[in-house]
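In the current project phase, the collection of sequences with tokenised folds has grown. A sample record is quoted in full directly below:
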Amino acid sequence: MSADSRIASITARIVERSKPHREPYLDRVRRAASSGPHRSVLGCGNLAHGFAVCSPAEKVALAGDRVANLGIITSYNDMLSAHQPFETYPALIRQAASEAGGVAQVAGGVPAMCDGVTQGQPGMELSLFSRDLIAMAAGVGLSHNMFDSTVYLGVCDKIVPGLVIAALTFGHLPAIFVPAGPMTSGLPNDEKARVRQLFAEGKVGRDELLEAESKSYHGPGTCTFYGTANSNQMLMEIMGFHLPGASFINPGTPLRDALTKEAAKRALAITAMGNEFTPAGEMIDERSIVNGVVGLHATGGSTNHTMHLVAMARAAGIVLTWQDISELSDIVPLLARVYPNGLADVNHFHAAGGMGFLISQLLRAGLLHDDVRTVVGQGLDAYKIDVRLGADGNVERVPTPKESADPKVLATIDQPFQHSGGLKMLTGNLGKAVIKISAVKPDRHIIEAPAKIFHDQAELNAAFKAGKLEGDFVAVVRFQGPKANGMPELHKLTTVLGILQDRGQRVAILTDGRMSGASGKVPAAIHVTPEAKDGGPIARIQEGDIVRIDAVAGTIEVLVEDIALKTRVPAHADLSDNDFGMGRELFAPFRAIAGAADQGASVLFH
């Protein structure tokens, strides 16, 4: 089925807007690919260094340019649950490559930090910029020019977007993304949230809180709520970077290992040495990016991707805007209820039919471009499957069922949970912002209340503990943008404001910071651009000003006369405490040149 005319129209607009960037990009990719296996340009000394530790047979193979060499970029570390499973992947990939007549080498490692560990800590101020650093680190590994294809081992929040930027920068090489999968289900997410709220109210102690958190995050794999990490996996599959069905298989299982080996063999099959050459830069086009945005809306995915998708697209010369994302949200229905947009976790989502069912439903309605290229060939029909382990130990795929196994978790296109994706752009005299309302009750979609001003989340939490947050209000938390302090996530606001909302107060958040995929039930106008550090209008809001956040009309406004607002002197914040400690001094150059949130908050693309 061809794409819905509205989807096609937005895509055509992106194509036209992108031409000045996309056409030179494709020219660079094609020129790089046309020179054939790049080891041929290496001198003997270069090549000897590149395969010094290989076996004699591998050295002969790599010296002759007749055997493909697969580069592995890994985000392995053994502290973080999502990345610990990658410890064994290089050995599996080398074995699979050998079976396929190729060679595989770890080209390089990239840092992987966990927002769960750094939440509310100084290290969180490095988090967003780690995306671009990861792209650079992957680029260093691939710059050795030894490889014919690549596999990327990454899962979490900034790691996958950073790796995608690298894959598209080295767009002449094929690229397959290999996930580790989610941890098995632990303490239900709603119970975890309940204990967090009790702790914030002082009704349980740290021991009880730690016990609940440990039961939630209890083993190898991705956290099971639907935040940025699992939104990443959805994106990689719906954009064609994953093998069909690869996203949500638990770590440490025979099927997970079989999928990893299959990915390695497929990566070798799509090099320029064969008949199915699939360079990443040509595979991913404007249609692929639109498919990713559609998947984000259909699943109620992370608000972080309003920045990551913009930056990822730009790496391929594609200019995606918040307006595009917002208009697609109006078209795409919500088909998944996964925490914080429901009680289920991603394991329940997968069991209900997962990505195969989701893609089949969206294709049936013409909401995806089905004629895209993917790592398995042409079209998304190959992704309308359930994946299982065959009797021979290899991956087996069967057509996805026509009905959801759990309609409370995964809906059909005919009976969606809501008729829009719930991720919208807001505009007004405060600039631009993003709001996610898929978990916000309809009677909270419009909040008009006096402003309470804070310059960090600790200040707001202190006011809560002191009993100063009374009545209806909009919490204006500013100087949290990329240039101010690296744009940390402000998760500690969620619990406090959730308590106040449950008490009957009408509250909302307005911030130039981030809230991620866990912004939850409190209305949150986030990523406000221009940020306060840049003198944006958010810096001119004064205590008690009436602020209106209207997710229905798509507006953010402070109800002050324009002339009066413009003549106010912007507020100033002492940010010196954000300049040092936990590596923040190393990232000063990033803060100085960071782009705006609506441009991807990138140091690479403005």
About this structure: The chain is about 40% helix and 15% strand. Residues 424-599 form a domain with the Glucose Oxidase; domain 1 fold (CATH 3.50.30.80). The chain has a mean pLDDT of 92.
